[in-house]
Amino acid sequence: MPQIPTDHLEAASTLAVVISSKDPLLFLSDDLRIIAASTSFCRAFEIDPATVSGKRLGELGNGEWAMPKLQSLLTATATGSASVESYEIDLKRPDQKTRQLVVHAQTLDDGDVDHIRLLLAITDVTDMRAAARLKDDLIRDKAILLQEVQHRVANSLQIIASVLMQSARRVQSEEARGHLQDARHRIMSIAALQRQLSASPGGSIELRTYFTQLCQSLGASMIAEPERLSIQVTVDDSIVDAEVSISLGLVLTELVINALKHAFPDDRIGTIAIDYRSSGEDWTLSIADNGIGMPGGEDAPKAGLGTGIVEALVKNLNGVITLTDANPGTVVTISRRETSDVQADLSSAA
């Protein structure tokens, strides 16, 4: 019985694999004639399998595969001077939706040493691309909506702050007026954050701008004589999540309010210095004044609402509060270290 040449067996095996493949495949000669097409290719692109063999690639269907750039790349691949990897094409057919395809081509050793053969794999990514575009559109719409909500929240907060200020001017009780003014400052702190959020991508806050605007707002509303009192802000390039910035902003607000109310009595001249530094997950926020310092004994103020707010926020930040006599003045330092335990020691009232 005569032996069948090995190269013929390999060629027959390759044909069988191509034709039965579940993926759209084309088996091409070096002159781009079709040796075989998978059944899935013919079904996907509505081509009669009986009409495929022997045709050039550009003759398939109604000529929609006659793409000069693709043919040039395939010819170069056959000669070994190029390769086709994830090459995207648009398949346009009369009265049908344009399909977006990704093409891969490689030379194939099927046992015929005298001719180079190409295996062409086609992936239809039309639906995937459409889904990606829809997702991008939804994300963009969501971002626009979120920005609009943030603008409206910021506007609403400023309206509330204005109402509180008007109420503070009408009340007779100094204590009630003080509480209303403090509430207004806290709301303005959140309003400043909302303005930063509306201008920041991804819900992250650049602290230098945020703290600067926040202190400018506090100074404008609480410092009647800018030549006597001032607030200085020094912040590195830290960027934090919105949730963290809320707590930091409120802590800063409470401590600056506290310094402005208690550190400079009797028209004393002075400065409040804000400093923030971070390294990895660790950070330090300090609020220093050169005022009268920390009163002790019977003169020490009782812990108030502001103190409770600061302690709760620092605990939420996994931070530690330290209070130092700067002689003159006071320094409040809030720091976070990855290995530190939460402690709080704040004796001056806000």
TrEMBL record:
Pfam families cross-referenced by the UniProt entry: HATPase_c, HisKA_2, PAS_4
The UniProt record lists the keyword Phosphoprotein: yes
Keyword ATP-binding attributed: yes
Domain Histidine kinase: residue ranges: 248-340
CDD domains: PAS
UniProt cross-references to SUPFAM superfamilies, sorted A to Z: ATPase domain of HSP90 chaperone/DNA topoisomerase II/histidine kinase, PYP-like sensor domain (PAS domain)
Catalysed reaction equations from the record: ATP + protein L-histidine = ADP + protein N-phospho-L-histidine
Any GO molecular function: protein histidine kinase activity
UniProtKB keywords: ATP-binding, Kinase, Nucleotide-binding, Phosphoprotein, Transferase
EC number per UniProt: 2.7.13.3
UniProt-listed InterPro entries: HATPase_C_sf, HATPase_dom, His_kinase_dom, PAS, PAS-like_dom_sf, PAS_4, Sig_transdc_His_kin_sub2_dim/P
Protein name, entry field: histidine kinase
Phylogenetic classification of the source organism: Bacteria, Pseudomonadati, Pseudomonadota, Alphaproteobacteria, Hyphomicrobiales
